[in-house]
Specification:
By secondary structure, the protein is α/β, with parallel strands linked by helices. The protein is built from 9 helices and 15 strands.
Length: 334
């Protein structure tokens, strides 16, 4: 690509206290001075970007910024010994799209330390069908496995199951032979049908999930993947079987945790946090290698919707409003 050739990017600027997102034509010279230049194929839209476009939680830390916490594409130029032109690469996290320019552009310059190679057996589109959501879900499943939770241990609860992380977790756990119960606020039959299509055996949606639990409830779950936090996580802990493990990565319902020590000291329950943003490269690679086989293409097709760059602000609002089921992929070249 010639230095004066233009490409399309979604740029967020700050005017007083208002954020303005607009499609712009940029050149390579406009990009940050990092060591790997990438021709981007796909990115994703996540809850975090929804917060950012709504000017909440100070997600976007620099202006102007190109958002997008994920990208997949092909190396065009590289000053790094780790990557060469033609390499297919993936980016997830590292505060890209928040503190650094991200994936909502047809070209991106990224720190080589933030990149991994696309695993064999996966193309760039599938990698973003998975995205940070699926990669985080894989880390959650790995965490349960490391706690000794196997398919024979008993039922696994997945919260936020209609979202990207939750949906991918349901599909991965089902592929691995676990008995999955999906938690959702919706009682609509179409949502329950969707969750069962991607791998849930049972659906949980009772009123008790909005109420504080007793310190200990009846034992139900061998393990859990939680994206919600607050009262929901407190109830999960109170309902865990002896020796069970909860892998937690989200706070959609709040960052508080109104619980007691009872599940931990009387049932030996463990609560393990999962971070995908600053996860070490070796663990990232291990997660992505498993994602080649540990989630089905059929589930990914059901979970994902593909949109264009122009549609990102609209879908970001819908996502934040809870009107999106599944995961959103952004085709930056559409």
């Amino acid at each position: 690509m010639a230095s004066d050739d233009t490409f399309k990017a979604l740029v967020v600027e700050k005017n007083d206290n208002e954020l303005v997102a607009s499609l712009k034509q940029l050149t390579v010279a406009d990009l940050p001075d990092e060591d790997v230049l990438i021709q981007v194929d796909y990115s994703t839209l996540n809850y975090k970007e929804g917060l950012g476009f709504a000017n909440r939680n100070k997600i976007f830390r620099i202006f102007p910024i190109v958002p997008g916490v994920d990208l997949a594409g092909t190396v065009v130029e590289s000053k790094s010994d780790e990557f060469k032109p033609g390499d297919k690469v993936i980016l997830n996290g590292w505060s890209v799209g928040e503190r650094y320019w991200g994936g909502y552009a047809q070209m991106a310059r990224i720190k080589s330390d933030f990149l991994i190679r696309l695993p064999k057996g996966m193309d760039t589109k599938k990698s973003m069908y998975i995205g940070t959501a699926g990669y985080t879900a894989m880390l959650m499943v790995m965490t349960l496995e490391e706690a000794g939770i196997t398919p024979d241990s008993g039922p696994i609860l997945v919260t936020g199951a209609t979202g990207g992380v939750g949906g991918n977790a349901v599909a991965i756990l089902d592929k691995l032979g676990y008995e999955v119960t999906a938690l959702t606020r919706s009682q609509h039959p179409s949502i329950h049908e969707y969750l069962k299509k991607i791998g849930a055996k049972e659906i949980a949606c009772g009123e008790e999930w909005s109420k504080p639990p007793a310190p200990l409830e009846n034992q139900k779950w061998a393990g859990a993947v939680d994206n919600v936090g607050s009262i929901v996580l407190a109830r999960i802990l109170a309902e865990m079987k002896y020796g069970g493990c909860v892998a937690a990565c989200g706070l959609a319902a709040g960052y508080d945790l109104p619980t007691t020590v009872m599940p931990f000291i009387l049932r030996g329950v463990s609560l393990r946090g999962v971070d995908s943003v600053s996860c070490p490269i070796s663990r990232r690679r291990a997660a992505w290698e498993r994602l080649v086989t540990d989630i089905t293409d059929g589930a990914l097709e059901t979970i994902n919707t593909v949109i264009s760059l122009e549609e990102v602000p609209h879908y970001a609002k819908e996502l934040l409003a809870g009107n999106i089921t599944g995961h959103i992929v952004v085709d930056v070249n559409a």
